[in-house]
Amino acid sequence: MSDFAIELKGIDKRFGAVHANKNINLKVAKGTIHGIIGENGAGKSTLMSILYGFYQADSGEIFISGQKANIKDSKAAISAGIGMVHQHFMLVENFSVLENIMLGAEESAILTKGITKARAELKRLEEQYEMEVDPDAIIEELPVGVQQRVEILKAIYRKADILILDEPTGVLTPPEADHLFRILAQLKEQGKTVILITHKLREIMAITDEVSVMRRGEMVATRKTSETSVEELAELMVGRRVLLHVEKGEAKPGEVKLSVRNLTVRDSRGVTMVDNVSFDVRAGEIVGIAGVAGNGQSELLEAIAGMRPATSGTVTLNGQPVDITGPGDPADMRRRGLAHVPEDRHHTGLVLKFEEAENAMLGYHGDRKFGQSFLLDVESVRKDAMDKIEQYDIRPPNPRLKTANFSGGNQQKIVLAREMERNPDVLIIGQPTRGVDVGAIEFIHKRIIEMRDQGKAILLVSVELDEIRSLADRIIVMFAGRIAGERNPDASEGEIGLLMAGVEQKLEAAE
Amino acid sequence: MDHNTIIVLLQSTIRVSVPLILTALAGLYAERSGVVDIGLEGKMLAAAFAGAATAAVTGSALTGIGAAMLVSVALSLVHGYASISQRGDQIVSGTAINFIAAGATVILGQAWFAQGGRTPALSADARLATYKLPGADAVRDVPVLGPIYSDLLSGHYLLTYFAFAMVPITWWVLYRTRFGLRLRAVGENPGAVDTAGISVVRMRYLAVICGGMLCGLAGAYLSMALANGFVKNMSAGRGFIALAALVFANWKPKNILLTCLLFGFLDALSIYSQNVELPIMSSIPDQAIQALPYILTVVLLAGFIGKASPPKASGVPYVKER
Prior knowledge:
Radius of gyration of chain A: 25 Å
Distance between the termini of chain A: 61 Å
CATH class of chain B: Mainly Alpha
Number of strands of chain B: 2
Mean pLDDT of chain A: 89
Strand content of chain A: 25-35%
Low-confidence stretches of chain A: 505-511
Number of strands of chain A: 20
CATH class of the largest domain in chain A: Alpha Beta
Helix content of chain B: over 70%
Helix content of chain A: 25-40%
Strand content of chain B: under 5%
Radius of gyration of chain B: 20 Å
CATH architecture of chain B: Orthogonal Bundle
CATH topology of chain B: ABC transporter involved in vitamin B12 uptake, BtuC
Order of helices and strands of chain B: HHHHEHHEHHHHHHH
Largest interface: A-B, 34 and 22 residues
Oligomer: heterodimer
Number of helices of chain A: 18
CATH topology of the largest domain in chain A: Rossmann fold
Largest sheet of chain A: 6 strands, mixed
Number of helices of chain B: 13
Largest sheet of chain B: 2 strands, antiparallel
């Protein structure tokens, strides 16, 4: 028997003109947690999809436990003992947990027998790995963390010895992520091999034994985690030195640009999402809103941007009161000097089927500089897009390329360029770096600080506490739709974390 | 309305519901797998023609049914090839099948039989057989229950009993078998099926073949049971009504039975009112009553489609993400 659970030799894969994997060699030792890091588009997911039989490599060999394996589809991968937890869960949402676990491993043509067996086996696995799940719960009613547990159970149920997880913590809250890591450590103890794909360096340092770095389709290095550092890994990933800490001077807050008073937002079901929130944002400062996703931050941003009617409250923008309880008019808010980078670039930030140049002017397309009459002046649209591409280093530099073909980081830059280059007085930004790779994060953070230093008022919402702490001049923590407290950025992570978890009362009582 | 009228109306309801039930179930298999089947109408029509033509020539009802199913499955495979293998637009492909069926049946009918697009009238042997339930004659004189058993439940075509049996069978297949689990999954999230080591393409082809067979039976019923041969455009929108019934039934077998019976009842009412003066309906013009099932379709779909929750991947070709 080989000491290696997996050995990849010379794996090569092209998608048309894109060379996704270039002659990849990788050895993963049995019973270890092996991290694979790299920026978005570095080829990590492609490589793992080849290992899981989702794609076919153009050339190269795969060895499982020393045996050459021909993984022609996912079925072959499953029978070779490989399980995969995809970044976007591969679950049938209106099925029960049990049905999802059984799918593809039903035992017999009629389900009854298999159900009894699966139920018993599931119970045994739950106990063995301390992963509690109600087998009859419907997937879409479960929190993401539990859904992910179902994915893991699905793999173990199929007797996987090697478990691949693709960006597993992207959708998880910090406690959920901690729980996941405990489960992974347990799997390792049981002798299973875990491959963890991520772009978060801290996760790599926290739980892996070895780490391999990919860059632009190539495997550039493999290190023992204990013998490397965050700085070295970041440099290997990006190919140059990266500033992990944002450098910024003192804020020089000026007059109040955005003032929110007693803002309450109820959703269509009448549930209160934002509850009597008041705060100010001054020129030349960044106010960060921290909180676990789903505590009203999204609704707050949307209400201020004019995308969602508020139930009550007032917003004053540039000294002018704005009617925010009406149906909402994002265009009017823009005219008044507000720019908005929406949280979800795919749903509200971009039209993915449009050309880059079209997205680069979206929302400002009525502007005179894009055409004097009702016709668009295509030349000036493209020229404007090209200017932004150069300024923000958007790659590939082609304004006529379909937006869907840009990587996540570059798509985000398209939105940022569009909103920031309007030179707004007030900039509200949701999740500036969600799904964005390290190199681009550094750039985006720098730009945000530059905007602040130019005297813009910036409201920043992010679920990444690190990001809030390094960018914001003041931090407002939201919990259950309310402001749980305000802290300085030098407040400890633990203190802010407690506010995020909603234990503010206890804290203040103790003081 | 006396007792007898009700029996006659209900009997007629059963008779006209059969093609709706079979066709809606056909649609259920296809759409639960993620393939939108707007070509039900065309497949039913083509099957009706193939069935009647073959039965007229061979004189055998069974051969007719076989031909009807064969043609319908063949058209399903065309639709499958376009929408599953080639990932084309499923609405366009289905609509094309409707047009092909409407035109080809008339042209071929005229070319082969020269009776203005009709097929020759079928002999008794070439029509579908009816089945008398055991003891039907014996209990006929029992008050109330006798006529219900002897006239309403007994004496239908075998295919009628089969159609009604297919409702619980389909439910069982869908919720109690491996095939059903995979079928429902592939219409909701084909990615989950693919990564579970099951072929999405194979599942979808199997589903459209099931649909094709059921649709073929519905066509055969039209031309070999309900009528005595093929008549131009004899499906008369039933494929679309079945599709509406499927949507209104929220893609669930039990609801399909109920909605098809409802549509069938309205149809029966309009047929009946043309022949007999009914007390309430005498003041309403015939045409309005005939249009009732179609009007109801529009009303129901407009009013209730908001609540419908179709299979999530319905109408979306499966492409591995990149």
